[in-house]
Structures are given as structure tokens and as C-alpha cells.
Amino acid sequence: MAADADLESLPGVGPATAQKLRENGYESFQSLAVAGPGELANSADIGENTASDIVNAARQEADIGDFETGTDVLERRERIGKLSWLVDDVDDLLGGGVETQSITEVYGEFGSGKSQITHQLAVNVQLPTEVGGLRGCAVFIDSEDTFRPERIEDMVRGLPEEALEATIEDRGLEGSPDDEDTMEELVADFLEKIHVAKAFNSNHQILLAEKAQDVASKQEETEWPVRVVAVDSLTAHFRAEYVGRGQLAERQQKLNKHIHDLMRIGDLYNTAMIVTNQVASNPDAFFGDPTQPIGGNILGHSSTFRMYLRKSKANKRIVKLVDAPNLADGEAVIRIEGEGLKPE
What is the spatial distance between Cα 277 and Cα 100, in angstroms, rounded to a whole number? Predict the structure, then answer.
């Protein structure tokens, strides 16, 4: 997807409008093709009829929006990457790992290890493909003040020997995993490839999703494209700011827009979207686990893969695949150690 498309070739787009579009993250025909006319009208300060014409013309230029055969869909899906957890049982549960172009939701109670997963995937995504990574950088939207560089260092140092050796070679570093100078340089390089922003409220979080698209656009043609966007947590600010049934509709509308902004990043830039979610207890549940995720049907329908993380004995956690379009439900056991996520 060309980020330097000639936007002025579209009907109704002059130099000033093209500049406004680029400033709002619409740098290609494809990004315009998947936009809504109302959204585009607000961004570029143009009429909705003009915006609709621009969207339709961009769809023709980008060659999207028409029907395609199942064979075409299969070929497109072959470009989807799989990001490994480096825990075989969980990767098997997910059919090979976390998919790009999809939203994977992980929900669970406090202390269950959701933030550990986002940190681990921000590390794993940078590994060469032959050892389970996607050789890309990460964007981390932090709404609960959970990101810790020290934890990234622990997890880099805790990577399997094979993965460390392949990564050191891939990045052209001298030395081995036993060389402290090499490891310090490697840790610094990993941290450099994680773009972190703290969200102070729900509106800021929505803005950061738009900024994340800008980062993905700028990185797309580089050696290190964005291959994972982590949001920890997706619902914390929305839950705190929109209290009571009277504000439920407004909350869900804003959350829905936010989720679709994230989905767009995944579709446009072949990026894996990993979001964590809070839970509540259902007092009406007399049998089974009363824990249920926040976000209602909006989030339930938007998440391609939905995973429930619950505590077990000591450092063990049960990872349950609750929903997936092409995979059977199942469970796996992981351990959360000082060196990161480890198999049982």
C-alpha cells in the first residue's frame, strides 16, 4: 500500500484538502477506501457528498470493496502472520499463534497476568520469523500504567537460547547470549522498537489509536514495520468515565468506534491487535464461573479471538480459548515467571 499516493487525483481533492487528509492519517487510497464519509467529512472539513465521492473513487483506485472468490480470500489469508507465545500449548490452541489482521482479546481478573502477555508479545513480535516472531516493532497503548521497561528486559533475557542466538545474528550484533555487553545492547534495541503512549482518559485513548495508525503508516516501508498493537486495557477508562445505564449507549458507541479504529490498523498494515479487558462478577450466576468480560456485545462481536485468563496454583495460569471463528474451544496451562511466560 503506497503511503505517498497522489490524493489530488481524486475528485474534490485539491492541495489543501489533500494536506488535511494526510494530517489526519489518510495517506493512501486504501486508508480512504475503508473510511466512512461522515468521518472523512469531519477530518477534512468538507461536505458529506464530497467525502462520499472521495471514498468511492479511492475504492476504485485501491481495488477494494467488490466481491471476490473464496480462492482470492484464501490467497489473502496466506499473507496473515502468526505471532508465537513461545508456549506450544497456547500456540496450538490458537492454530499457530496470534493472528495479524485480527483482534485477540484477553480478559481476566486483576493479577491474572494480562499485562504479562502484552509485554511478552511486544518482545516476541521482534524475533525473526523462524523462531516464532514477525520481525516487526510494537505499539503499546497503556491505559492502566502497566508498561515497565524492566519487565521487557527480564523477558528478553529469558528468551530461549535458540531465539536469542537467531535474534543477535539477525540484528548484526557481535557476541553471544553469554556476553553481557551483547545482551545489554540487545535489550536496548528491543526497547527502542516498542512505541509506548500512556492514555489519560477515553478520549485520549481514542486519539492514541489514531496516532498508532500514523506510526504504522510511517513504519510500513521500513525494515521494522508495526506488527503488533497492544492496548492494556481496552475498557478501563470507558468503565470509569461512563457510569450507570444512562450513559451506557454513549459508552458503547465510543467504544465501538475505538475498536473499529484498531481493526482498521490491523487490516491496513497486517498487524496483530492484542487487547486486554477487565471483568465483572455476575451475581445472578448460581452455577459455574460468574466472571464475565466488560464491553458487552460490542466487544464480543468485534474480537476475532477471545481468551479467558484465570489464576491457578502459585504462578500457574489457565488460558481458555472462549471464542474463535475457525478453532475449537480449549484450555492450556502457562507459568508466569521472572523470565516471562513459560510452558507448564
Answer: 19
Q: Contact 118/230 with Cβ under 8 angstroms?
A: yes
**Ranges of each domain in the chain:** 7-62, 76-343
Decide whether 7-62 matches 76-343 in CATH topology: no
CA dist list (Å): 174 to 154, 178, 181: 21, 11, 9
The residue that leads in pLDDT, 244 or 324, is 324
Note the pLDDT of residue 12: 84
- Model confidence at 244: pLDDT above 90: no
Q: Is 96 left (phi over 0), alpha (psi -120 to 50) or beta?
A: left
Say if CB 133 and CB 271 are below 8 A apart: no
**Which H helix or E strand runs over 273?**
strand 272-277
At residue 282, does pLDDT exceed 80?
no
What's the CATH code, domain 7-62?
1.10.150.20
76-92: b (≥16 Cβ within 10 Å) or e: eeeeebbbbbbbeebbe
CATH homologous superfamily of 76-343 equals P-loop containing nucleotide triphosphate hydrolases (3.40.50.300)
Which of 123, 151, 148 is CA-nearest to residue 137?
A: 123
Arithmetic mean of pLDDT, 48-75: 84
Residue-averaged pLDDT of the chain? 92
Edge-to-edge strand ranges of the sheet holding 194-198:
194-198, 137-142, 226-232, 272-277, 103-107, 305-311, 316-323, 330-337, 340-343
Which residue is listed with cell 481496552?
234
